[in-house]
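Report of the visiting student (M.T.), summer placement. My assignment was to run the structure pipeline on a short list of targets and document each run. The first record concerns Efflux RND transporter periplasmic adaptor subunit.
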Amino acid sequence: MAIIAGVFLLIALIWLLLYIFVFSQRETTDDAYVRGDLVTISPRVAGTVVEIAVEETERVHAGQVLLRLDPADAQVSLMNAEGQLAQAVREAQQSIEQAAEADAAVVQRRAQYQTQRDEYDRRFPLVQAHAVAPEEAFNANRQMRAAYAALEQAERQADAAHAQVDGTDVHSFPAVVQARAQFRNAWINNNRNAIVSPIDGIAARRQVQVGQRVQPGQDLLTIVPLTDLWVDANFKETQLQNIRIGQPATITTDIYSHATYHGKVVGFNAGTGSAFSLLPAENATGNWIKVVQRLPVRVSLDPNELRKHPLMVGLSTYVNVDTHNRNGIMLPTRVRNHPLMSTDVYEREVNQADEKAEEIIRANTVSAPSSDVFCVQGKPASAHSVLPAPCARANLSSLSEH
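After the run finished, the structure tokens were exported:
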């Protein structure tokens, strides 16, 4: 009896030591599942599906065409926008040339006015000497006033022409900017008929057929990046006391009986599953039964181990968290300073639209023949550029004495 009692006592001591140094230093659960990002592919424009390029289970790359919509309507809109942009560029050049033409008209009218003024200045003194008839002086005065009025009119027309073009060029002309924006929108809408994948991953949940009419935002396909997965381990609330962020964890699965994954605790969900369910439980009732709740704890997975032994979303796992080090925290204190996920496939559309718009602007920019125009001050200016204000429009205060 003493031997039997000693054996049981030894077994109890071994169990106590195991509990103190092993079992009490870890938390395990089999209510854990593989999770990942599910990127839903949906159209950004309405249309009819004319081509499906991928099937479920196939690998896709970022920028790869997944589906195509009928491009007829978008191509018509694109051609219309291209014509409007070309027309706006030519109208902008016309406005700039009209401003230069108005400047040349000011120079011409100023020269005519000076001619009539000099004619009047020669005839007016001769009237007192009875060398010319007064009617000639009066006619010269009327012609001088008419030339002055024509000069003022030309200057006002030049001011009106410059009000449309001063401070701008063909690229920054308001009508060109507006037409360019409309062309960019038409170009992007035309490219949106080709629905591309924003990320690398595996195609899943195809819900579209050829000939189907689709609308913006409609779920067509799902892309799952299987290279970046994690495990949501649903621990009981009685197990959460010693779990902290950063603690190591081991994960085993049924799909690979010989493989063990290593990760760490990266965070706790903000609420239990029942708190975020569509119809949460109503506990404020008379017939209430206490149910131990579970809280999802996110455990990361080693990418290298995932490449050797790939996992799929939804697989069940066994999670064992080592809680020896309990100095960590349960709630994060740092704010993420970089994007969680990003893609540049849509930026390429904008860059291509800008490049095409530049081609249209260059193709419709007409280089005018060069010639020189000399103003009264003797400063030459190009006939096909906006003349400087001192050269194009002189101060008329000096003419008021006449």
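Confidence is low (pLDDT under 50) at residues 371-402. Residues 72-128 form the longest helix (57 residues). I thank the supervising group for their guidance throughout the placement.
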